[in-house]
Design a protein that fits this description.
With about 230 residues, this protein is of the alpha/beta class. The chain is about 20% helix and about 30% strand. Strands 1, 2, 3, 6, 7, 11, 12, 13 and 14 form a 9-stranded mixed β-sheet that branches. The longest helix is centred in the middle third of the chain and has 13 residues, at about 105-120. It is globular, with a radius of gyration of 17 Å. The two termini are about 25 Å apart. About 45% of the residues are buried. The model is unreliable at about 230-233 (pLDDT under 50).
């Protein structure tokens, strides 16, 4: 059974230099409250794996939204994502200053690379990116020709910690996601050594029907209460 901890206790599990996956898609299904606490900590040198770098400004009139806070605070040294164009600070730190390494991966490929990491596979084969700069990515392990078609061999991705967001979570850590808030969350829950879920709503065991469980509690190590403050998970 996962341990129920405070936001501060959960943030303390993330240390300098760790590789951390964050669920979410432009703030949808993102563990905002835990990110807030992490942004106030002194942790640094992180490698982030997530769909995007979010953006300046948010629905609560924040100066920086979601993982953009960690980028703004210069707590990130390496960023693996599918797009970062809505966050100008990524370009500033990576292209102008050279203080942030950015590795861009096609969105579908990123999802499958994380899935492979969770399944214990060595990587994936995909035709996406053949003949483009994706071939030069440090995550591209080479090219294979199968049945006359070229494929890129992309590395599997795992993390020290995955921080995900769940709409409804029970005491066993079983998770139901509302609508599109699932996005990368279920994949990341299977691809990290330690998994923390920020729960919008905590419910009694049995409240979530078995067929509605999207992430099984066996994957979850820690649960924190949060999410309702922002209404985005």
């Amino acid at each position: 059974m996962p341990k129920l901890v405070s936001l501060e206790e959960a943030a303390a599990l993330i240390h300098d230099g760790m590789t951390v996956m964050f669920g979410g898609f432009m703030g949808c299904g993102t563990p905002h409250d835990l990110i807030d606490v992490l942004a106030e900590s002194s942790v640094k040198g992180l490698t982030l794996i997530c769909n995007d770098a979010s953006m300046p400004g948010g629905p609560m009139h924040e100066d920086h939204y979601g993982v953009a806070k960690l980028v703004h605070n210069r707590q990130v040294k390496r960023f693996i994502a599918t797009h970062v164009g809505l966050n100008p600070e990524v370009a500033k730190q990576s292209m102008e200053e050279g203080t942030l390494e950015v590795v861009l991966v096609p969105q579908g490929s990123l999802a499958e690379m994380i899935r492979a990491g969770g399944a214990g596979l060595g990587g994936i084969l995909t035709p996406t990116g053949v003949g483009t700069i994706v071939e030069e990515s440090p995550l591209c392990l080479g090219k294979q020709t199968i049945h006359g078609r070229d494929y890129l061999m992309m590395d599997a991705l795992r993390a020290d910690v995955a921080v995900i967001a769940g709409s409804v979570v029970d005491p066993k850590g079983n998770i139901w996601y509302r609508g599109a808030t699932s996005n990368f969350n279920p994949l990341m829950a299977a691809a990290a050594d330690t998994v923390i879920v920020e729960a919008e709503e905590m419910v009694y065991l049995g409240y979530i029907r078995p067929e509605d469980v999207r992430t099984q509690g066996i994957y979850v190590d820690y649960v924190v209460r949060g999410g309702k403050k922002r209404g985005t998970v």
